[in-house]
Amino acid sequence: MDNFMDKLAQKWNAAEMIKANSAAEAMELKRLRDQLAEYESILQEMRKLNLKNSELTDSSKQLIEKGINELTVLLEQQKQLPDQDLKQLIDQLQSTIQEYIHTENVKVYRNVQAVVVDGLKDQNESYTKQLDLLKDQATELKQKNDALLKKIKGIKPLLIIVMIAILANLGMTVAWILGIL
Q: What's the predicted TM-score (pTM) here?
């Protein structure tokens, strides 16, 4: 009986192993199919980009050829121009360049002017704040000075009385030393 059970257990384990292997192979096959589909979409995108790249290359080749042809025509026209026309062309180019330089100089001047004006405004505001602080300090000092003057007004008569008493005492001391008293 044990042999029968052992054989049954071995078959059962083998069947389970086969099922597990089949499931693993199915999952691996699904993963590979998904990866293949992803690679196909990437390949399609690369083909599209390659087509677009070749179109852009063709169009840029045409533009370069067109530019070369136009330059060739301009060079031939320049060779055919008499010296007078060439000088006029050079003068026109110089005046155009000078106008452009003047325009750029004006822009730079206006930008510098704006920066200076803004800087002056900021500096003016700073000075105004400092002036307000100084005014506040001056007001405080004036109030303290007024308070001291009021105190001194009360002390002034007392000081005069003390001075008179000191002078009287001095006079009496001199009179006593001289023997008058």
A: 0.32
